[in-house]
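Weekly structure sync - notes
Attendees: PM, LS, DV (DV joined late)
Agenda: review two folding runs queued last week.

Item 1: First target. Sequence and structure tokens pasted below for the record.
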Amino acid sequence: MDKISIIHNHFNNIYKIANNIENILKEKNIKFKKGNYTNHYISINNKFKLQKYYIPVFTIKNTGDIGINIDKIFFEIPIKKSKLNTNKIKKIVEQFPKIEIYGYKNCLNDFYKNNDIEKLLLNIKNSHEKFIQFNLESEISTKANDIVNKFNSLSILIKT
């Protein structure tokens, strides 16, 4: 198969997943806005690269985003840093150990990821950020219903 066919099939799969997620969000009466956006980042060979191409993203009202990237599904959920405490962060990290925690304004400074919860919270409190972003990735092969359920579980844990 030539490169163009491989890319074509891969992007068609991404938008098929997006359509399935959209259908589930509608079935569950979840309010969302669907868009195709550029300027996300992807890690290639452990370096963040700016994406100038569009990817589908669902913005769930008052919650966060579900995005379908070329290699993963991602969930981004912001919260005011004043609402974070040691117990909340500990619960989030214990339940979702691969979660990334970084600044909302400066997402490339992933300096909050740390195993020491107290130090992590201190770094958050000492930052200039007003909002802290939580990001969790899921395999692109994950079923749409499982994607929505995992997003809901994470958002409930972060927002409550």
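Item 2: Second target, run right after the first with the same settings.
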Amino acid sequence: MRPNLFHAKQGDGPSLADLMRMIRMSFLYRTAIVGVLVFAGLFSASRYIRTWLAKPVLDEVILPASQSSFDLASIAPRLWEIGAILGVLLVITPPIMFLRIYLASWVVARVRQDVDRQVARKFLSAPLRLHRGEASGELLSRALTDAHLACRALEVLYKDVLEDFMLLVGGVMSMFLISWQLSLLSVVAMPILLGFLSYFGNQVQKKTQRRQETQSDLSQRLIGILSGIKVIKAFGAEKLESDAFQRELMRYFRRAVRVVRNRVYSRALVEFVSQFVMISVLFLGIWAVLGDFWGLTLGTLMAFSFVAGSLYRPLKA
């Protein structure tokens, strides 16, 4: 919602300042927000604990079982420990996900309730001359649309962004706990990935804004055609208006294609860099395992590879 509700330009969407205002409003429910953070952290921990279990399964179960002197009784206690950990994670993960999503949705719903209350209060306190001079229905529609978009951004923040942030932090910590040597090699590529994401993210934002401006111009032209249809038909200007509208459509198409092109460039480059780094680290890890360097085992390398692979989605998001 805008600070000056009744002077917002048509076609404007919620800005970063609007989102920050929504976040400040959500701090009224800070207890629920803390709950969202806690459950997001627990979800991240449960995911990486499952990934880390690849190390003891491979080093302490599978590899010993492949030897001729294998004795099931010697690894049975470890099997029970791993099974118990997996069982606990299987039981607690669904409630953690439910509580995280429920609390995030609850916060967004309460903020939307507060925003609607403020919109109603502004309309009630506005002078009568404003209601006479402008279309109150159009103002209300624009105000509620902006409020809905800002609340949607807040929902993405609490439902998705916080989870991805926790997954990213938990993944980096897990990588360093598993093997700090391989982690340092992986971190070298982090600035490159962030640079690509930042550059193309800014480009997509700029191109998307221009595309939205063109879409607003299309709507205005359609409204102009409908409002002046009698004059257009009286002077036989249908083809003239059709050609003008076609030019606006092509301008919108070109700007939409630029948005898609930047998104595809970003995805392709990030995919290339991330896969190149992952393959390079994997080969270095194999070399270290075979040469008995850095104290790496095959289980450590597999667990590290699983954690590094799971970081791709939250990093991109």
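Discussion on item 2: The chain has a mean pLDDT of 81.
Action: LS to circulate a short write-up before next sync.
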